[in-house]
Amino acid sequence: MLTSAVTEWTPAAPVASPPVEDLDGPLARSAGCGDVTAFEALYRRHSGRVHGVILRLVGGNAGRAEDLTQEAFVRAWQALPSYRFESAFTTWLHRLAVNTALMEIRGRAGNEDRETDDTALEHIPSHDTAGQRMREQIDLERAVATLPERARAVLVLHDIEGWKHEEIAAELGMAVGSSKAQLHRARNLLRTRLGEAHERD
């Protein structure tokens, strides 16, 4: 019975894909017109993810991440009136937040090698937790935090956020070849530091 019913069933016409203006669209439109309540709703909905990517970019420094998250949302509030809904709001906001962090990283160029020692580990909380997978994740986050700033930014953007080297180079003010070299450097340092962490275990 079930087989014959499936055979005779004619599917309805395909449902049209929703426009780029996603579920956040109405809130974003209202916020773009000055509706503070709508913007607060967007903040509550997206601040966690924005803070997460910024936290990775700044090597787990909670204070810097919090400041840059707030700055990113201030910039979003200022830019919303000109947002054209050509991409999903989450994509637009995420890109704006990453760019906010990268601007700060560019401004710190020259100081990056001061942040490559073990003091960077102080920014990453150490949890007493069971489970090999959780320990490996913590080791990875701690190792990423110790990378030189620009190398860390390239690694996070390329390997985690999926950016292309051309995009990274443009945002960080470097040549494409430099972005590739920084990624190679970051991966090698990461392998070394993860190996050292496992040896200590």
Give a written overview of the molecule.
The chain folds into two domains: 89 residues, Orthogonal Bundle (Rna Polymerase Sigma Factor, Chain: A), CATH 1.10.1740.10; 82 residues, Winged helix-like DNA-binding domain superfamily/Winged helix DNA-binding domain (Arc Repressor Mutant, subunit A, Orthogonal Bundle). Helix 3 crosses helix 4 and helix 3 packs across helix 5. Helices cover 66% and strands 0% of the residues. It is elongated, with a radius of gyration of 21 Å. The chain is mostly helical and 201 residues long.
What descriptors fit this protein?
mainly alpha, 0% strand, Rna Polymerase Sigma Factor, Chain: A, disordered N terminus, elongated, 66% helix, Arc Repressor Mutant, subunit A, 201 residues, 9 helices, 2 domains, single chain
Tell me the layout of helices and strands.
Blueprint: H1 2-8, H2 25-32, H3 36-57, H4 62-79, H5 89-107, H6 132-145, H7 149-160, H8 165-172, H9 176-200
Helix pairs in contact: 2-3, 3-4, 3-5, 4-5, 6-9, 7-9, 8-9
Provide a short characterization of the protein structure.
This protein has 201 residues and is mainly alpha-helical.
* Fold-level CATH name of the largest domain: Rna Polymerase Sigma Factor, Chain: A
The ordered H/E elements are: HHHHHHHHH
| CATH homologous superfamily placement of the largest domain | RNA polymerase sigma factor, region 2, helix turn helix motif
Calculate the terminal CA-CA distance, rounded to whole Å.
Answer: 61 Å
